[in-house]
Design goal:
It is a single chain. Helices cover 64% and strands 2% of the residues. It is an all-alpha fold. Strands 1-2 form a two-stranded antiparallel ribbon. The longest helix is centred in the C-terminal third of the chain and has 23 residues. The relative contact order is 0.14.
Length: 176
Amino acid sequence: MALTNFHASLMRLLKHEGGYVNDPQDPGGMTNLGVTKKVWEAWVGRTVSKADMQALTPVAVGGLYKVKYWDKVRGDDLPSGLDYCMFDFAVNSGVGRATKTLQVLLDVNADGMLGKATLGAIGEGPDTAASLINAVCDRRQKFLEGLSTFPRFGKGWTNRVKEVRHDSLAMAYTRR
Protein backbone atom coordinates (compact mmCIF):
# COMPACT_ATOMS: atom_id res chain seq x y z
CA MET A 1 0.00 0.00 0.00
CA ALA A 2 1.17 3.49 -0.75
CA LEU A 3 -0.16 4.95 2.48
CA THR A 4 0.56 3.71 5.96
CA ASN A 5 -0.85 4.31 9.41
CA PHE A 6 2.52 3.71 11.06
CA HIS A 7 3.28 7.28 12.14
CA ALA A 8 -0.22 7.92 13.52
CA SER A 9 -0.18 4.53 15.24
CA LEU A 10 3.25 5.22 16.75
CA MET A 11 2.09 8.55 18.16
CA ARG A 12 -0.96 6.88 19.73
CA LEU A 13 1.20 4.09 21.14
CA LEU A 14 3.75 6.49 22.63
CA LYS A 15 0.94 8.35 24.40
CA HIS A 16 0.15 5.11 26.21
CA GLU A 17 3.75 4.16 26.85
CA GLY A 18 4.65 7.47 28.46
CA GLY A 19 8.12 8.62 29.48
CA TYR A 20 10.90 7.33 31.65
CA VAL A 21 10.03 4.93 34.49
CA ASN A 22 11.96 2.49 36.61
CA ASP A 23 9.27 0.80 38.70
CA PRO A 24 10.76 -2.07 40.75
CA GLN A 25 7.41 -3.91 40.47
CA ASP A 26 7.44 -3.74 36.66
CA PRO A 27 9.11 -6.84 35.21
CA GLY A 28 10.33 -4.69 32.29
CA GLY A 29 12.54 -2.62 34.58
CA MET A 30 14.01 0.66 33.31
CA THR A 31 11.82 1.86 30.44
CA ASN A 32 11.34 5.00 28.35
CA LEU A 33 8.75 5.50 25.66
CA GLY A 34 7.81 1.86 26.17
CA VAL A 35 11.29 0.59 25.33
CA THR A 36 13.01 -1.44 28.03
CA LYS A 37 16.71 -1.08 28.70
CA LYS A 38 17.27 -4.68 27.56
CA VAL A 39 15.44 -4.14 24.26
CA TRP A 40 17.22 -0.84 23.62
CA GLU A 41 20.62 -2.39 24.32
CA ALA A 42 19.89 -5.19 21.86
CA TRP A 43 18.73 -2.64 19.27
CA VAL A 44 21.82 -0.38 19.57
CA GLY A 45 24.25 -3.23 20.19
CA ARG A 46 25.81 -1.90 23.38
CA THR A 47 25.22 -1.35 27.08
CA VAL A 48 23.31 1.85 27.82
CA SER A 49 23.18 3.99 30.93
CA LYS A 50 20.28 5.47 32.85
CA ALA A 51 21.07 8.80 31.17
CA ASP A 52 20.93 7.13 27.73
CA MET A 53 17.52 5.69 28.58
CA GLN A 54 16.24 9.02 29.89
CA ALA A 55 17.38 10.74 26.68
CA LEU A 56 15.33 8.56 24.30
CA THR A 57 13.06 10.44 21.91
CA PRO A 58 10.17 9.37 19.66
CA VAL A 59 12.44 9.80 16.65
CA ALA A 60 15.11 7.59 18.22
CA VAL A 61 12.73 4.73 19.04
CA GLY A 62 10.62 4.98 15.87
CA GLY A 63 12.86 2.67 13.84
CA LEU A 64 12.81 0.01 16.55
CA TYR A 65 9.01 0.08 16.73
CA LYS A 66 8.72 -0.09 12.94
CA VAL A 67 11.08 -3.04 12.47
CA LYS A 68 10.42 -5.09 15.61
CA TYR A 69 6.64 -4.63 15.92
CA TRP A 70 4.85 -2.88 13.02
CA ASP A 71 6.61 -4.87 10.31
CA LYS A 72 6.31 -8.13 12.30
CA VAL A 73 2.50 -7.80 12.45
CA ARG A 74 2.51 -6.69 8.80
CA GLY A 75 0.89 -3.38 9.69
CA ASP A 76 1.10 -2.08 6.13
CA ASP A 77 -0.84 -5.14 4.91
CA LEU A 78 -3.63 -5.04 7.51
CA PRO A 79 -6.87 -3.11 7.20
CA SER A 80 -6.87 0.35 8.71
CA GLY A 81 -7.59 0.18 12.43
CA LEU A 82 -6.68 -3.48 12.72
CA ASP A 83 -3.10 -2.38 11.96
CA TYR A 84 -2.99 -0.12 15.03
CA CYS A 85 -4.84 -2.64 17.20
CA MET A 86 -2.33 -5.39 16.36
CA PHE A 87 0.69 -3.06 16.65
CA ASP A 88 -0.28 -1.89 20.14
CA PHE A 89 -1.06 -5.44 21.27
CA ALA A 90 2.30 -6.67 19.93
CA VAL A 91 4.22 -3.96 21.75
CA ASN A 92 2.35 -4.51 25.02
CA SER A 93 2.20 -8.32 25.04
CA GLY A 94 4.51 -9.63 22.31
CA VAL A 95 4.31 -10.13 18.57
CA GLY A 96 3.71 -13.87 18.91
CA ARG A 97 0.81 -13.50 21.32
CA ALA A 98 -0.84 -10.77 19.22
CA THR A 99 -0.43 -12.73 15.99
CA LYS A 100 -1.61 -16.02 17.45
CA THR A 101 -4.68 -14.28 18.91
CA LEU A 102 -5.63 -12.98 15.46
CA GLN A 103 -4.95 -16.38 13.88
CA VAL A 104 -7.17 -18.20 16.37
CA LEU A 105 -9.96 -15.72 15.66
CA LEU A 106 -9.53 -16.30 11.91
CA ASP A 107 -9.38 -20.10 12.37
CA VAL A 108 -6.02 -20.42 10.62
CA ASN A 109 -2.85 -22.16 11.81
CA ALA A 110 -1.78 -20.24 14.93
CA ASP A 111 1.96 -20.31 14.30
CA GLY A 112 2.65 -16.73 15.33
CA MET A 113 3.82 -15.79 11.84
CA LEU A 114 1.51 -13.40 10.06
CA GLY A 115 1.72 -14.61 6.47
CA LYS A 116 -0.38 -15.06 3.35
CA ALA A 117 -2.84 -17.51 4.91
CA THR A 118 -3.61 -15.15 7.78
CA LEU A 119 -3.86 -12.09 5.54
CA GLY A 120 -6.07 -14.01 3.10
CA ALA A 121 -8.48 -14.95 5.87
CA ILE A 122 -9.04 -11.38 7.03
CA GLY A 123 -11.45 -10.23 4.35
CA GLU A 124 -12.19 -6.66 3.36
CA GLY A 125 -14.23 -3.72 4.49
CA PRO A 126 -14.54 -1.66 7.65
CA ASP A 127 -17.18 -3.93 9.20
CA THR A 128 -14.83 -6.92 8.94
CA ALA A 129 -11.98 -4.89 10.44
CA ALA A 130 -14.27 -3.64 13.22
CA SER A 131 -15.38 -7.17 14.09
CA LEU A 132 -11.76 -8.32 14.33
CA ILE A 133 -10.73 -5.24 16.35
CA ASN A 134 -13.45 -5.95 18.90
CA ALA A 135 -12.58 -9.64 19.11
CA VAL A 136 -8.82 -8.97 19.45
CA CYS A 137 -9.42 -6.36 22.16
CA ASP A 138 -11.74 -8.72 24.05
CA ARG A 139 -9.13 -11.49 24.00
CA ARG A 140 -6.35 -9.07 24.91
CA GLN A 141 -8.28 -7.82 27.92
CA LYS A 142 -8.98 -11.37 29.10
CA PHE A 143 -5.27 -12.22 28.79
CA LEU A 144 -4.25 -9.14 30.79
CA GLU A 145 -6.77 -9.91 33.54
CA GLY A 146 -5.09 -13.29 34.01
CA LEU A 147 -1.64 -11.83 34.69
CA SER A 148 -0.29 -11.79 38.25
CA THR A 149 0.58 -8.11 37.83
CA PHE A 150 -2.99 -7.14 36.89
CA PRO A 151 -3.84 -5.88 40.41
CA ARG A 152 -0.95 -3.39 40.14
CA PHE A 153 -1.19 -2.36 36.47
CA GLY A 154 -4.69 -3.51 35.47
CA LYS A 155 -6.46 -0.16 35.60
CA GLY A 156 -3.95 1.36 33.16
CA TRP A 157 -4.01 -1.69 30.90
CA THR A 158 -7.81 -1.72 30.84
CA ASN A 159 -7.92 1.97 29.94
CA ARG A 160 -5.34 1.36 27.23
CA VAL A 161 -7.33 -1.48 25.66
CA LYS A 162 -10.48 0.70 25.73
CA GLU A 163 -8.66 3.58 24.03
CA VAL A 164 -7.01 1.29 21.48
CA ARG A 165 -10.40 -0.21 20.65
CA HIS A 166 -11.97 3.24 20.28
CA ASP A 167 -9.16 4.64 18.11
CA SER A 168 -8.87 1.46 16.04
CA LEU A 169 -12.59 1.44 15.29
CA ALA A 170 -12.45 5.11 14.27
CA MET A 171 -9.53 4.32 11.96
CA ALA A 172 -11.40 1.36 10.44
CA TYR A 173 -14.14 3.67 9.24
CA THR A 174 -11.75 6.36 7.95
CA ARG A 175 -10.21 5.77 4.53
CA ARG A 176 -6.45 5.70 4.30
